[in-house]
Amino acid sequence: GYASSLFDDVWVFDENNIWVVGDLDLDGNYTNIMRWDGKKWFPFSREFNSAGISGIWAKDTSAIYFASGIVLKYKNGTIAWEDFSKLNFTNNQGVEKIWGSSEKNIWGVGKWGTIVHYDGKEWKKIEFDNSYNFYGITGNKNTGTAYTVGGINHQTVIVELKELKARIIYNESTMIPSLSAYDIEMINDKELLLSNADIWKFNLDKGRAEVFQNLDPGYILPNIGYNKENDIFFWGSKLNSGEKLIHYNGKRIKEIDLPIREYVIYGNINWKNNVGALAGFSNNKAYLIIVKRL
Questions:
Q1: Which pTM value belongs to this model?
Q2: What is the CA angle 142-144-225, rounded to 5?
Q3: 116 contacts 87 by C-beta, under 8 angstroms
Q4: Phi/psi of residue 218, each to 5°?
Q5: Taking a C-beta distance cutoff of 8 angstroms, is the pair 260, 243 a contact?
Q6: Counting C-beta atoms within 10 Å of the first and last residue's C-beta, which end of the chain has fewer, N or C?
Q7: What is the C-alpha to C-alpha distance for residues 36 and 65, in angstroms, rounded to an integer?
Q8: CA 199 to CA 193: how far, in whole Å?
Q9: What's the N-to-C CA distance of the chain in angstroms?
Q10: How far is the C-alpha of 19 from the C-alpha of 103, rounded, in Å?
Q11: Residues paired with residue 245 on neighbouring β-strands, in sequence order
């Protein structure tokens, strides 16, 4: 009928424990959290939100956090809403992506300048220019500092989130080289990895961006699946060639063909050791691609 389903984000614990979130119509039964055990799907009861669930971050299998405008927490079999009653969101603000170094240091970002922080006791809103929209977030597990990538008027910015403060450290409109991104990963204590039409790095000590890997014209790679510095995946498309999964082994890139779909909207990619999962949407249908290294 007219109903559609989508997957926005995914978290891989191992090949027999993959969690994916979005908004699904399962023949009239609605859900927005699904778990795959390697053989079959287990849907959770729907946590109502008209936009579904857009982000997921897990401390471990017993503590999983979901972004759905506000934040939900799965703890030992129970899902509950976090208390956002004091945050005073405005202009349709809401959390869409989350990252944490621990359960006492979790950051959430989203549209209209949304930035929030959880210290293990309460959530606080960090004021920021509400002209910006944030797409992805990563961070340093050792220091707890987070980094989010977003934009304004199609110009990419990187914002550092530290000690309840947010500051822009890269602005595409004012810095050379001028590079855009939709996803961000921390690859070591000094460098961030970003991608879109280019794969590039940002050096935190030098405050400088540089192209990390030259691509043929026509690639758009809005998603990064980071395992380690010589084992990185990029998911997107190539003009007139459909969906592509790109692997970087520390020296060169390899292109992997994916099943052809039309009208693809990319969710996210997550990688753990030898298993990855790609979440997306095509022709009103949610889909998940599981990739295994043999």
A1: 0.94
A2: 80
A3: yes
A4: 105, -10
A5: yes
A6: C
A7: 17
A8: 7
A9: 39
A10: 19
A11: 235, 256
